[in-house]
Amino acid sequence: MNIPLPSQHQAKEKSPAAYTRKIGSCMTYRSDIVWIDITDKSQDILTLIKTHKDIEYFPVCASKIDAVIGIAGARDYLQSRLETPPPNLQKILTKPLFIPESQTIEHTLELLNEHKANAACVIDEYGGIEGFVTKNGLLNSLFNRSVQTTSNTERQTATQADGSIIVNAQMSLDEVQALQLLEDMERSPAEEYYTLAGYLLAHFDAIPQPGDSIDTGSYICTVLSMNGQRIDQVAIKKKN
Fold first, then answer.
1. First to last CA, the chain
2. Is residue 9 part of a domain?
3. Where is the CBS domain (predicted)?
4. Which of 101, 121, 143 marks a domain boundary?
5. Cα separation, 191 vs 231, whole angstroms
């Protein structure tokens, strides 16, 4: 039996405050995105879809996650395999929609409706892929927000012997502060960043290197690793 998804109106009534949050609070993080390479063989794609039965839509990329060329629906792909001859992957792709991480959930849903899209890629200030969202995922996330746990946040952290906390730089600032870190950080409504990486990039004079750090007042944030021009992991340590 199919369980009906909540409507956009129901989701807004259920959680009006969450509706105006930035899209980063509901996206699948870059490191967790399951994507298809345009050169993948049909059997490999079928195996991927079977392995990830809970995923409705997949970004299709040219060799790397930042080169998204389209979105493939799992159901669309499976149905295309029944045709004779089956069309190639390119034929079933929908045009990718790119949304800045600073966008609100409300406006993201409006854009998805406007473009008749079911999924979108979330991009950072440099145009790199920050995350991935689906329309159904956003609505369900809003509707069920009251029963969500912090397990997703906790699995992105690790505590070191010196007391510093290693975090995924793609975490939202709200998630970081929910861990009782950087609680004294000053934030302005006009600021365009939403993630910890965005905050750090806004305060470095140039693209940082591993080992670079900033003093937030009560904490020292040290970049541990980079992925190209993207900050990957950060150590946050409270000052004595």
1. 57
2. no
3. 92-149
4. 143
5. 18
